[in-house]
Amino acid sequence: MLFRRIRGMFSNDLSIDLGTANTLIYARGQGIVLNEPSVVAIRQDRGPGGAKSVVAVGEDAKKMLGRTPSNITAIRPMKEGVIADFTVTEKMLQYFIHKVHETRIIRPSPRVLVCVPCGSTQVERRAIKESAAGAGAREVYLIEEPMSAAIGAGLPVDEARGSMVLDIGGGTSEVAVISLNGIVYANSVRVGGDRFDEAIVSYVRRNYGTLIGDATSERIKIEIGSAYPGNDVKEIEVKGRNLAEGIPRSFTLNSNEILEALQEPLAGIVGAVRTALEQTPPELGADVAERGIVLTGGGALLKDIDRLLQEETGLPVIVAEDPLTCVARGGGRALELIDERGGDVFSVE
Amino acid sequence: MSVLTNNSESESEAAVDPIESPGARLRKARQSQGLDQAKVAAQLHLSETMIESLEWDDFDVLPGAVFVQGYLRNYARLLQLPEGEILAAFQALSPAQQSHGFPNGKVATVGKEVRSSHGAVRMMTWLIVLSLLVLLGIWWQGQLDLRLGGDPIGTPAEVAPVIEPLPEMQNDTGVLTLSPPPAQEDEAPVESQAVVADSLEGETPSEAEVAEVEDVVVADQEAAQESMAIQLEESEADAVASVDEPPPAPVETPAPAPAAPRVVFEFSERCWAEVRDANGKARIFGEIAAGTTRLLDKGPAPYTVVLGNASGVSITVDGVAYDLKRHARANVARFSFDPSNL
User: What ipTM did this prediction achieve?
Assistant: First the structure.
């Protein structure tokens, strides 16, 4: 305990956005210090019960996804915002925390604030807490993602005014109404970037009879994906395995097709926002109607998603600055506020 | 919009803003595209007053910097203007607005506060840690010393009786080695004996004294054949007669010490006991059962006593109770005593 504390003097306070797709770490006073995919590649030694060892973590491991030999598996230890594989998550966090403190001689033991989806259960939260503690954290705080996202986006969360934030992550989308440093309403739907990718894969299989991988579908989404019909039509050439011939073929997709493919998951998000607006107390609803909904998370980078929501809800919708890092930055800011005003400022656990 | 209002707007803009503000750029673009504020407001889902405030850079009436930036971005996109330029212009115009709320923490906090990673802080921490370690080491060393040589340091009063009788013993043995060849005695041993006597008495005896010592030895040998009481008397008499040197010294080896006081250990409770005589020979050793009584009648006088359960033991010297409590520490008594010197 004492040693942890001494080691803590040589560690930075960290805010970790432990996302399904990407893990971001914000170090106090330094900004975003790490942004890597939440992927771990594990080698299983031959024979039953052979030792497992971590081959790569983050960017390197992501390159291996879908390209591994039989003794290596590249896995994403987080599913839908919560831990799917406890041990691997712990290893991953350990690696990331160490990477952030690379130059230090002493093993780091930072205070860590981890963002959790508001829909996660106590068991899932405890798993995250334990795994962060196992990765070497001295103290672990948990904060709900929408709160962190709102702080990171720069919303006036401490005012007696309703602010609605929609955080579209890799596994989940969270919508919340925040006032006076607390969450008035929050809902989490298990629709996110991953569901967009899956939708594209199944669309391509259905309409082109061709199988594409997750990485390809993610590239398609980033390059030509859009949520609202636009004036310009973009095209992209992709390669996939033709199911009928069994041979890799190249074909061209355009943005309208992708728009069509994304309709279903997008409808899920729009539905969540509508429900949130219905459930919000009228005074706060009025505040939201006046100022608008703020989008954060990687999903907010999908082209014209703000326009879609704007048209669907009839409310102004704005995308936060640097939406991908909002949650991590907000967590960092929350850590500072905890230091300034004590632990009970937010609903931090 | 009429031409007139257009003109008036552009004039006032030129007067107010020589450098193009974000609002002015948006307004110009909107006018050039033939849109009016109401239509823009409907498309952006904002009120007309908000659009007007945006166009006139009147940001105070608008919610916060975050929202203003969002509105400007949406507006710029609607008019197909470069978003980045409009936002840059906004930031240049109102840096204060920008820092309102909690914007990018990375901009706001970098390098301002002294963090734990700061060089000076780290140096101080190391110094404190090192000094703490040194103090800990010193304390530990002290603890270790105390444990190893606990008794002498702990009870200096007890040291005296241990050390005091030693000369007597030396003297004893000295006498004994001398005694077997009383006739063959040559100069060297005599001298050495004299030296011993010297050091003991602090006087300067000469040949005469050596002779006296020899006398004593002879007397001793005689005495050994007689009863103990007589021996005592004789030897005492000899001692008084011969030299000032401590009389019991030249006296018979272990005989007088046990004879004098009767030391009885009574064990009322089960207790670990270790009693060693001056020669280090164990007289009572081991765990003694409750209700046992032991008489300590052997071995030369200063006894080293260790009692594991001091409260369960009572010592009487010639029927007089000996106070154990002053030696007992956490119910363990370690002391040495000489019954005759009590």
Answer: 0.82
